[in-house]
Amino acid sequence: IIVNYKKSVNIRNMINYFIFTPPMQYEIFSTQKRMIQWKTFMKLLVQLMFLYFMTAFILLQFILPEMLILKNEINDNIVLLGIVFRIMLAANLVWMVSMYLNVYETYLPAYAALCGLPQTFCKDWWNSETLTVFWRRWNLPVHNCLKYNVALPLIRCGYSQSASNFIVFAVAGIIHEYLNTFPFGIYNGMAFVFTLLEIPAGYLNVCITKKFGNVYGNLFLWMYLIFTHCLAIISTFLFHVPHN
Questions:
Q1: Which of 40, 88, 179, 221 is deepest in the core (most CB within 10 A)?
Q2: Tens digit of pLDDT per residue, the chain (244 long)?
């Protein structure tokens, strides 16, 4: 079906294809009548509730107790290393459950099923050889939104690729800060800082991939994700919770 973009921009389509649909930008899918996939929606809804419970369980049972110990002074390096290692495992498990399984494999597909829209929200990000490829595959709605509404307009206005990338990551950092810390009353800017660290890490990842191959590039990617998720949680907690 061929859709004329200018003629398709109206109040009804803005409501149907932007406000009440999963994509973060106006996007016409089809002019045909949409059918709500109730069976798929109900199945994903049950799965969503289970994953929310699992996320809360991991946070309360595995991360919070270790954080309470970590905020006290620890003189034994072995004990400290063990605490950090356990937080690292739990933090990445929370990331996998809450973001990948919960958001991209359950919540957004359930939203799409309720709207009757076919939509892909992420690709095989785990096979990414660089952080650049990872961000293109990890969160397609946000990636497309930032690409078409921030990056490409900046380049058309004469900004360099580097300047455009910095502004895009700065905007992404603000979004991460708002979504990850503001709901908990934490305003320390750590989510913003860790998002900006993606820029130099991405360049380093590209160099490693070019010199040693895709396998080592993917290995660096996973090591970076594992360590930064752990550091982000620890730094956010330690900066926010006062020491005894």
A1: 221
A2: 455 666 777 787 777 677 777 777 777 665 444 677 888 889 999 999 999 999 999 988 988 888 888 777 677 788 888 888 888 889 899 889 988 999 889 998 888 888 777 778 889 999 999 999 999 998 888 888 899 889 999 999 999 999 999 999 999 999 888 887 776 677 778 888 889 999 999 999 999 999 999 999 999 999 999 998 888 888 777 665 544 4
Q: What is the pTM of this model?
A: 0.80
Out of 121, 137, 154, pick the residue that ends a domain. Answer: 121
141 and 207: one domain?
A: yes
For the chain, what is the HEC assignment?
A: CCCCHHHHCCHHHHHHHHHCCCCCCCCCCCCCCCCCCHHHHHHHHHHHHHHHHHHHHHHHHHHHHHHHHHCCCCCCHHHHHHHHHHHHHHHHHHHHHHHHHHHHHHHHHHHHHHHCCCCCCCCCHHHCCCHHHHHHHHCHHHHHHHHHHHHHHHHHCCCCHHHHHHHHHHHHHHHHHHHHCHHHCCCCCHHHHHHHCHHHHHHHHHHHHHHHCHHHHHHHHHHHHHHHHHHHHHHHHHHHCCCC
- By residue range, what is the domain housing residue 223? 125-244
